[in-house]
Every structure is written in structure tokens, then in C-alpha cells.
Specification:
This protein is of the alpha+beta class. The protein has 22 helices and 20 strands.
Length: 679
């Protein structure tokens, strides 16, 4: 694997390892700084000694990777809130009592049924300067003037920390926000907000104004709203207004990447600019003119799309590829990928934990690395066959490279992804070209009606095609249990198989066999681990009660609601099944007495009826039973009390007080999340 021979590869990998150690290990800042200074001193010493002692080259490499490792660790620490003394998280009062907070709106997010949602930058708290990013939820009110990017808002509010998962194996929204350096959010009514007449007129403000101008001009031109929302997502990455049903169609068809501006879209723009500038000769000046034009076009595109992180990283990635192509150096594709990766992580190390970032680089790397191998399998003679085969091999290379990661994060696989890409890419090519022209005109004036109709019909055709492919749901493999062991060993197979395909010999064949064996071992280990685990879970639901009992891969469910599994809430149970390689065996009505691993669990429901002679280990309160808990505790003497989310909040406060007096542990799922009882 020649790419590993590049010194830049080892430096980048060392830098990434430093970020990972700093993220999961959270080393002391003094340790990281000391490690960096020691490594840097050794680096300088070896560097100036090399001319006299050539044998020190090995130590020079080691010291370089050492410095890179600790630089990665330090970079992540510098981006964490606890080292930034001006970050609002250090103002404890802001989380305990309402404070007067001033913040500037930075980005519009997808709204929900009740609130318009934004990200904002904190400026002051009680007239003291602070920094940091927060999530702002503003109650919808049609009578007020809409909030725009750059608005400076002031309100007396309480900062609320992001909540942890209330149920097992759910999407960790708190971690997702923390990785974006968002540690708190606020909920506001429009009447509470004071909007400053001044605006923060930075690049994000002008980007927002430009985007609003495009939107308004398209609306004036009579663009259908559904198609316009998709157009803004396809060209500018603005998918806030797209319906959930349409997003689901794109997911099931394997075309979600189309709605998120990624390397595909930026690559189209780069190819389009190349096509326009094709008449310019490839002389030194001509090549430089093309490069400058591409870089300016990509920069303008980033501004038009609102400077979102996903767009910025794609633009940076392709800007480096354009520079590498201009320099025409051997191996420049991998070098430029590595340089762009290193540069992005140097400024935003938390991007490493962003799923979109991981998928983008993996897809692009495997297109460059694996697609030539797949392409050589067949050499069609007809031009149309060449085009289709090329599109198919690109699609397969990207899908193979990202499949393990998709199974790990999303637990599903669209079986018709190759059909989607072959059918959709020609339509998307036309849409991108037409879209660039239409949106460029919309910057200045409403585009001509004939252009709008062509653009609108092409998007309608795209949506219709996607919907028909997505309707074949039996081709969508869902609920695939896939853990970290399988993820690592899957990539081991993919990488060794690709190397074997490029160079078949004893060593590569042995490597492939070893990778298959390690994958089988990980499967056997996972199966053994699943069989030996036993667990009972009390879930958090607001109106219902749900308990699951797991013994190995068999899971039994108890609920007070017989039709609960048909409700949206059942997805939390499905997440638990998938995350633990489990199968739902039986569903039963909630019982008043349960047993698990020799422990007795007494359940008191809304009837308030219980057997006083029972001496349970655990007392579970559900559906707000009208009982005198002090009297119950005197009779049954439980070791711990659990109250699930079906109980009224006011009653739980009284119960908590009773437990505190009796010195009995009290676990409220509304406060602490699900309760897990293991063997």
C-alpha cells in the first residue's frame, strides 16, 4: 500500500491518534504540553545533528511523529470549553438562575412543530464578555418579524445543559452537540426577546442575505415550493424546509448524500468550471487562470451555501485537489487529500467525530484507490457502456468504502444504491448545471420563467424517480446489528482484499485470510458476549410504562399499553434490540410482581393495589399511583425505588422527599434516564 510510504501519511495518522487519545482519554493539559516540548526539543536536536550523523534519520522520524501526536492532542484540548476561560460554561450562575444574555444568530436550523431553531454565539452575560455556541429555540409566532442571520438578541433567560439519553442505544444528541461545541440551549418566547437595531455584519450575515435574496427571487419567479426546497438543498445544502417523508425517500433509495452538499456537488462545480474554461490552453498562465477561477468559484459557492461546516470541508478538500492537479505531481491525489485532512483537523479537530466528515473522506479515498481496480474488471467498447460502467464502479467503490461505517451508525443498507446512482447521476448532472445558472441569475433578479420551468420539472422528475426506487422497501436492509469489533474487522477485510486485487501474491493472500479469520473471531466473540449478558431495563416514556428483560439474545417485554409496539415510541425498543443483537420473543401485560436473577420487583400501578407481605428488592412506581409512600415503605422495605416517566412530576418530588428521609435510593427516569438491572 504505497500511500503508507508517504511521510505525510504517518504524520497525519499520528496527529489523528493524538486527537483520539485526547478525546477519549482526556489527558491533563500539563502532560500534553510537556510531551510536546520534550518531543519538539528532541526533534530540533536530531534535526541539527543529522548532517554529521546520518544514522539519526530513524530518530528524526520518530521525533516527528511524536511531535505530531502531541500536537493533535493539544489541538483538541485547545478546542474544549474547559480550557477556554471565557466560555459561558464557566459561568455557573447562568445555569442556576435567569441571566441577561446577549447573543448573535449564526445559523438557521430545521424547525420543529413548536420552535424555530438556530445556533448562536454568546456575546455577554450580565454585561460581562463571554464566548461559546448555544442552541436557540424560539417559539413560533406568525405575527413577529422573522429572525435573520446577524441579529443580536438580548433576553433574560436560563441556560439549560443538553440532556443525556433517557433510553439505551438511542442517538446520543448530547454528545452530537458537544462535538459541535454546543453545551447549552435556551427556550424563548418572542415577547421575551429584545432585538438590537444593529446587526453583526460579518461574512455569515452577508451569506445569509445573499441566500435570502436568492430565495425571494425564486419565489417571485413562481418556483413551486416543494421543488424549490429540494433545489436549495441540492445546490446550497439548505435542507431545513424539506419534509421528513421526502428525506425518508432519499434515505431508502440510497441517495441521502444528494441532499447534503458534499464532495459530489463540489466535484460537479469543479468539473463545470473546467468545462467552461476548456478553450483556454494548458500553458503555465492558462493553467494558473483555471486554478484561480476554480478556487474563486468554490469560495463563492461556500458563501452562497451559508458557510456550513459540511460545505466548507468539501470546498477545502476539492480546493487542495485542484491545486494538486495544477502542480501535476505524482501521487498528488493522496498528498492533497492528506494535506486537506490535516489542515481541516488542525482548525476543527472535532470534525474527526462528525459522521459526514468520515463518510466524505472515506468515499473519496476509496474512489481514488479502489475504483481503478473495479474499472479494469471489464472494458466496454461502446461510449454509453463506458459511461455507465464508470458511474457504476465509482458508486460501488464509494459504497464499499463507506458500507461498514453506514452499518455501524445507521444500521441499514439500501440495496438499490447502484440503480439509484446510475439513474440519478445523469439527472443530477443536468440539475446541477441548470441550478448553478438559475441560482446565479437569482442573485440579481427573478430568473426567466422558461428556465424556472425546466429546473422545476427536472427536480420533480428526480423526486419521482427517488420515490419509486424508495417504494421498493424490500430492497432496504434495515435493523442490522453491527458493533465496533465488526466495524474494524470489516475494514480490515476491505483494505486487504483491495491490496490483494492490486497485487496477488502469497503475502497479500495470507493477509486476506487473516482478515477473514479476525472477522469470524469478532462474530464469535459478539455472539458469546450476547449469550452471557442478562439485563432488565426500565425505560423512560412520558405516558406509558415499558420494561424489557434480556437473557442472551432473547428479549421479553412488559408494558401497560398493549398497542405500544405500534406507536412511534416503539423505536426506542427497536434501538435496544438492534444495539444488543436481540430478538423480541414475547410481549406481555405489565405484572405487579416480577423476578430477575433472584431479585424481586414489586410494581405498583395507578390502581394503588399491592401485597403488603411482599418484601421486594425493588419497588417500581408507574402511572401515578395514589399511595402514601411513607406507609408503603414501612410495610415492604425495598432497597431502591424506581419511578418511570409515566408518573406526574409533582408526585415524584414528594416521593423523592420521602426516600431522602428514609435514606432509600430513588431513581426517577425523568431525571436520571433508564434504569438498568444486570446480573
Amino acid at each position: 500500500m504505497k500511500v503508507l510510504d508517504f511521510p505525510l501519511t504517518k504524520i497525519t495518522l499520528s496527529f489523528i491518534c493524538g486527537i483520539l487519545v485526547s478525546y477519549y482519554g482526556v489527558p491533563a493539559f500539563q502532560v500534553v504540553v510537556s510531551g510536546f516540548l520534550i518531543g519538539f526539543s528532541a526533534f530540533l536536536l536530531v534535526y541539527f545533528s543529522i548532517p554529521k550523523h546520518k544514522k539519526l534519520l530513524l530518530f528524526f522520524g520518530i521525533s516527528t511523529y511524536w511531535v505530531s501526536f502531541f500536537m493533535g492532542a493539544a489541538t483538541l484540548l485547545f478546542h474544549t470549553e474547559w480550557l477556554q476561560k471565557s466560555n459561558y460554561t464557566h459561568n455557573k450562575e447562568a445555569f442556576t438562575a435567569p441571566q441577561t444574555i446577549t447573543f448573535v444568530i449564526r445559523e438557521k436550523l430545521k424547525s420543529n412543530a413548536y420552535n424555530d431553531r438556530y445556533t448562536a454565539l454568546v456575546k455577554t452575560i450580565n454585561n460581562r464578555n463571554f464566548t461559546g455556541k448555544i442552541l436557540v429555540n424560539i417559539q413560533k409566532d406568525s405575527t413577529t418579524r422573522p429572525i435573520i442571520i446577524g441579529n443580536i438578541l438580548k433576553a433574560k433567560i436560563l441556560l439549560q445543559r443538553n440532556n443525556s439519553n433517557k433510553n439505551p442505544n438511542q442517538f446520543d444528541y448530547k454528545k452530537h452537540l458537544s462535538d459541535k461545541q454546543i453545551y447549552a440551549q435556551v427556550y424563548l418566547h418572542t415577547a421575551e426577546i429584545s432585538v438590537s437595531k444593529k446587526l453583526q455584519t460579518d461574512i455569515w450575515y452577508y451569506s445569509g442575505r445573499l441566500h435570502s435574496r436568492i430565495y425571494n427571487n425564486l419565489k417571485k419567479a413562481g418556483f413551486n415550493e416543494t421543488e424549490m426546497d429540494v433545489a436549495l438543498a441540492l445546490i446550497l445544502g439548505q435542507r431545513q424546509e424539506i419534509s421528513n417523508d421526502l428525506i425518508q425517500d432519499y434515505q431508502f433509495s440510497g441517495a441521502t448524500h444528494i441532499l447534503s452538499v458534499s464532495g459530489l456537488h463540489v466535484g460537479f462545480i469543479m468539473l463545470f468550471i473546467h468545462f467552461i474554461l476548456k478553450p483556454i490552453p494548458n500553458t503555465r498562465k492558462g493553467s494558473l487562470l483555471k486554478l484561480v477561477s476554480i478556487l474563486l468559484a468554490l469560495s463563492l459557492f461556500a458563501v452562497l451555501s451559508g458557510l456550513s461546516p459540511s460545505v466548507l470541508r468539501s470546498v477545502v478538500m476539492f480546493s487542495f485537489l485542484a491545486v494538486g492537479n495544477h502542480l501535476r505531481r505524482a501521487g498528488s491525489v493522496y498528498h492533497t487529500l492528506l494535506v486537506s485532512l490535516l489542515l481541516i483537523l488542525l482548525f476543527e479537530p472535532y470534525f474527526l467525530f462528525d459522521v459526514g466528515f468520515q463518510l466524505s473522506y472515506l468515499a473519496l479515498f476509496f474512489i481514488f484507490w479502489l475504483q481503478p481496480l473495479l474499472k479494469n474488471v471489464w472494458s466496454p467498447k461502446l461510449q454509453i457502456s463506458k459511461f455507465l460502467w464508470n458511474a457504476l464502479t465509482v458508486s460501488f467503490a464509494a459504497q464499499i468504502g463507506t458500507l461498514p461505517l453506514c452499518l455501524y451508525y445507521f444500521h441499514q443498507f439500501p440495496g438499490l444504491f447502484f440503480v439509484t446512482n446510475i439513474v440519478v447521476i445523469p439527472i443530477l448532472s443536468f440539475i446541477m448545471i441548470a441550478g448553478i445558472i438559475v441560482l446565479f441569475l437569482a442573485i440579481f433578479l427573478p430568473p426567466p420563467l422558461f428556465l424556472i420551468e425546466i429546473f422545476e420539472k427536472s427536480i420533480f422528475l428526480l423526486n419521482l424517480t427517488i420515490h419509486h426506487i424508495a417504494s421498493l422497501e424490500w430492497f432496504v436492509v434495515r435493523d442490522v446489528s453491527f458493533n465496533f469489533y465488526l466495524l474494524i474487522t470489516s475494514y480490515f477485510i476491505v483494505i486487504t482484499a483491495t491490496i490483494w486485487g492490486k497485487k496477488i501474491n502469497y503475502t497479500t493472500t495470507f493477509a486476506v485470510l487473516i482478515s477473514i479469520i479476525t472477522f469470524q473471531i469478532s462474530l464469535l466473540y459478539t455472539k458469546r458476549e450476547t449469550k452471557t449478558n442478562q439485563e432488565m431495563i426500565v425505560y423512560h416514556l412520558k405516558k406509558s410504562s415499558l420494561i424489557s428483560e434480556r437473557k442472551g439474545s432473547t428479549i421479553k417485554v412488559y408494558s401497560n399499553d398493549t398497542v405500544l409496539l405500534q406507536k412511534p415510541e416503539a423505536t426506542l425498543l427497536n434501538s435496544y434490540l438492534v444495539g444488543n443483537f436481540g430478538k423480541l420473543n414475547t410481549t406481555s401485560k405489565m405484572k405487579n410482581l416480577l423476578f430477575f436473577n433472584g431479585k424481586k420487583i414489586l410494581v405498583i400501578d395507578s390502581s394503588g393495589i399491592y401485597e403488603s407481605k411482599i418484601q421486594p428488592d425493588i419497588l417500581l412506581l408507574v402511572q401515578s399511583p395514589k399511595i402514601n409512600l411513607d406507609r408503603v415503605l414501612q410495610m415492604v422495605h425495598p432497597k431502591i425505588i424506581i419511578a418511570d416517566g409515566s408518573n406526574a412530576y409533582a408526585i415524584q418530588k414528594i416521593w423523592k422527599g420521602s426516600c431522602t428521609k428514609k435514606k432509600i435510593p430513588f431513581h426517577a427516569t425523568a431525571e436520571k434516564g433508564f434504569y438498568s438491572l444486570t446480573e
